[in-house]
Design goal:
This protein has 14 helices and 3 strands. By secondary structure, it is mostly helical. Strand 1 (145-146) and strand 2 form a beta hairpin.
Length: 282
Amino acid sequence: MEVKFDKDNVLHEFSMHMMLRGYSSLTIKNYLYIIRDFLKDFDVPDSKSIQKYFLKKEISKNTRATQTLILRSFAKFLKKELHIEFETLDPPKTSKTLPTFLTRDEVKRFLEVVKKNKRDFTIISFLIYTGVRVGELINIRIEDVNLEENYVRIKGKGDKERFVPITEELSIILQRHLKEPHYSDYLFETKKHTKFSALTIQLMVKKYAKEANIQKKITPHKLRHTFATLALESGISPITIGELLGHSSLNTTMKYTHVTNKLAVDAVKKISEFTNLKDIIG
């Protein structure tokens, strides 16, 4: 289907649309990358155009499903903006694979290797023992950390706030980290005193996983899987895990959070004990 429109202008409008809906900058970047690639050869993401687009790409069924959903999202936006109608392709059924995660022994081995670098040890310990997303981690500010009551305020998807409890062991790690000079408002900063990018954290995790001789493809998101899996193995309720991971919204008033998070506090404590974090930090 051929429809003439200013592609650059529409992409700009679509990116603004995603920002207003609370999409993260990384998600917007990924969406625009796929859509720009599609628009090189096609105009409108109707069923036929999407099918032709995928004919020239050697990608997995899961990747194709993800990219189809991105193009469907753009198609819905185009229909509304350009007042046109066309059919879009349904995403293929994805294959259900078990998430990759670190075992208890792998967590210990991983942290023993990272321990040589205080800053990196703090970052990776934080990922493993809170289950936060990498996009959430890099945006934590020092003012979000309360070491008196042991919780961290996290801004999740769509700017939804939640309060994640931290264990005594992780609190000790953070105390040591905060004694080091800081030159910005962010909890974690680069050697150039700037905010970390998600990519830098991903490369950091990959580097240490290789050094620890872990034969799995480990990313920050896999550390999130690790947190969830260890929590389940520790006997923690899936509902509590969902709250900790930000899958359901929590009331942002501290009074309410302290009541609802009694289970969450017990949960992170169990994970810390389960993996002997106290012995690792010494």
